[in-house]
């Protein structure tokens, strides 16, 4: 019989609802506790989903001896602080992307987890999805040839709300860390860390990057073109161009995952995946699988990948002139 883990959510915001729906798909995940700065918000969220306990203090939440695994859902600007708080209290942690605001913070989180011999993972959604895994399998099989170019975008038209997180520079707002991280992540997953980076951003009145264009170059001649924006309804898609064909990954309006495979000399093949809870349960499932096996990090999203990802994001910010006050 599998061990059942007591899960807690730190910060009951929008993404916490989605992650909770994922947890509800797993019979070895116990909806245990909610932590918020507001006792009322914590209580309301706990009641809505059936969590056993709620706390109006992050410190009290983290100190609960029965709590085993924490999903951190606060803004990027607070990820390091809250990850360290939970690790200090001996909890396994899965922290929402972006892992932190910069590489210095990410390395501190990783070092602390390793020193304490505690599990830590960045909550990156795509690498766990069936469409992503299928694309990797096709490329790894070799029949489609090596990847020579990636074109990836993530854009939507967000309401201009200067008082909300997305347009708040102090909270790490802006396109890059919120949605631009996905094209960067896809490119690193299928092509590795680039040798050259070019980037240009357009800024809002609040100082956050509303739109960012990025070009990657590799020593073998392969390239990537990345785009993310809060001002365009361009959608979400990653095109992987290979020597002998093309793979297209995108999401439908119903959040289903679409995979198009075009290999030279064969008929195009289209697949659609619609996992329960939008596939958020895959991340939680991986955490518990690792804990069952005594692992301190995931093989699917290892800490080295998160470290490389933030290093590249830092370089993009440097090229584009994106700065977070007091954090650079």
**Radius of gyration, CA atoms, in whole angstroms:** 20 Å
Give the tally of β-strands.
14
From the helix content, strand content and strand pairing, which structural class follows? alpha/beta
Main sheet specs:
8 strands, mixed
**How many individual helices?**
9
Share of residues in strands = 25-35%
Q: Per CATH, what is the topology of the largest domain?
A: Dihydrodipicolinate Reductase, domain 2
The global form is globular
Assembly form of the protein: single chain
Count of discrete structural domains: 2
The CATH architecture of the largest domain would be 2-Layer Sandwich
Please name the fourth-level CATH homologous superfamily of the largest domain: Dihydrodipicolinate Reductase, domain 2
Mean pLDDT: 96
- What CATH first level of the largest domain would be assigned? Alpha Beta
Distance between the termini: 48 Å
Helicity range? 25-40%
The unreliable regions are: none
Q: Give the SSE string.
A: EHEHEHEHEHEHEHEEEEEEEHH
